[in-house]
Design goal:
alpha/beta, maltose binding, D-Maltodextrin-Binding Protein, domain 2, transport, Carbohydrate ABC transporter substrate-binding protein, CUT1 family, four-stranded mixed β-sheet
């Protein structure tokens, strides 16, 4: 799930080095009569019963405790959080998009937590586990995840003589070649917006590259490395051969474009294809609903394409006056039973143990398989600035439109990233 990162944290005076939640002795115990939990509207609209169950569980252990909730839309949450963290009225629990965590952790805005206090922490998904860790310490708890999968139209594939979803990169490109030849130059065999950096960086990581690497406590951009260049060239070839839409677009309206019926395949979070098939967006006369087939995207490396795991984490602000109760509520909300509720809503769980149970369900097997190999953004103090500057998006657009070679675009992006990646926001 793509989350907009608002990097202006405003927490320079944040207390650093707070004791981990659940520390030994009674020093971490709180006498608070209430806790305040900030969640996004996703929880309010889609799984309010889970919120109530967590409230009921902690109140049963602490009779008289009141749990207050505030819900925010994603674009509004961080601006509000930045403002309140500068005061003494911080919430006790806050939901964060997983790429939003890094600058807050770097500034000491969140309290350290003890992973052993939370269910399934030993099996947290790698892509989410990385998002709650900074400098070897843990500052949050994974909440839920979503993975990217490939979806294509079996009717379009069949018309081109393709009867089954591909299992290898060679099969995939061969099938797309047939589809492209059958449908013509104005059709996108694979609709892949150039500014979708989540997809493009999957090619980089598939080739053994990375956006940046850590060395001696410092981060250095590595898009110029041979492996990263190899991945970018593989991505560029896809754009050139199969993407015949607007090469300056991002992925925000991909499902709407896909619903117009001028493309065969897309690589996107699992919710996008069903959304495209919604009658509001399906302009194919209803052909999408029964013709969408999901499959794990094979990578050029011969392995499944590593995916960016979007999702949410839960963190405890350092200024919370009830950190122990906040940790209890988070565990009640994200424990095994809670993850089961989230899975029933179409989400991926935060751990590999429960993820394995999804593999036997045809409705979720593809997403579960795709999530096994994942990557995450550099957990560097200045990563928020990199995202805000849209450095990767601009690099990719320059490559796709031919304004820069892969090598020059990567060099320019590395230079821009290196200027800010080690600087706290």
């Amino acid at each position: 799930m793509k989350r907009k990162l608002i990097a202006a944290i405003g927490v320079a005076t944040m207390i650093v080095g707070v004791a981990a939640c659940g520390s030994n002795g009674d020093s971490g115990k709180s006498s608070a009569s209430s806790i305040t939990v900030w969640l996004t509207v996703d929880a309010q609209h889609n799984w309010p019963e889970l919120v109530k169950a967590a409230d009921d569980a902690i109140i049963a252990k602490h009779p008289g405790l009141k749990v207050k909730h505030e819900y925010y839309a994603w674009p509004d949450k961080n601006a509000k959080l930045d403002a309140v963290l500068a005061t003494d009225n911080a919430p006790d629990v806050v939901e964060m998009g997983n790429t939003e965590m890094v600058p807050y952790m770097a500034e000491g805005a969140f309290a350290e937590v003890d992973p052993s206090k939370f269910d399934n922490s030993g099996a947290w998904l790698d892509g989410l586990k990385q998002s709650v860790m900074y400098d070897g310490k843990t500052y949050g708890v994974p909440y839920y995840a979503a993975a990217r999968i490939a979806t294509w139209r079996k009717d379009v594939a069949a018309a081109a003589g393709v009867s089954a979803a591909p299992k290898s990169w060679t099969e995939l490109t061969g099938d797309l070649d047939k589809i492209q030849a059958k449908e013509g130059a104005k059709f996108s065999a694979w609709y892949q917006p150039s500014r979708d950096w989540y997809a493009a960086m999957s090619f980089v990581y598939d080739a053994g590259g990375a956006i940046a690497k850590q060395d001696g406590g410092q981060w250095k951009a590595s898009l110029e490395d041979p492996a990263a260049i190899q991945g970018l060239n593989a991505w560029k070839a896809i754009e050139a051969k199969y993407m015949h839409g607007d090469l300056t677009k991002d992925e925000s309206d991909r499902y709407i474009v896909y619903g117009q019926g001028k493309s065969a395949m897309m690589y996107a979070p699992g919710w996008e294809a069903p959304s495209a098939a919604d009658p509001k967006f399906d302009k194919t006369g209803g052909k999408l609903k029964d013709n969408l087939v999901n499959f794990v995207l094979p990578g050029p490396s011969g392995k499944n394409m590593p995916v960016f795991l979007g999702g949410s984490d839960l963190a405890i602000p350092s200024k919370s006056k009830a950190q122990d109760l906040a940790a209890e509520w988070i565990n009640d909300f994200t424990n095994t039973k809670g993850q089961q509720v989230l899975m029933g809503k179409g989400n991926l769980p935060n751990n590999n143990t429960q993820l394995a149970t999804l593999e036997s369900d045809p409705a979720s097997a593809v997403t579960a398989e795709a999530a096994k190999i994942s990557w995450f953004v550099p957990t560097a103090p200045g990563w928020g600035t990199v995202e805000k500057a849209k450095t990767l998006q601009d690099m990719l657009q320059a490559i796709a439109t031919g304004k820069k070679s892969v090598e020059q675009a990567a060099k320019d992006a590395d230079s821009a990233i290196d200027k800010v990646i080690n600087v706290k926001n």
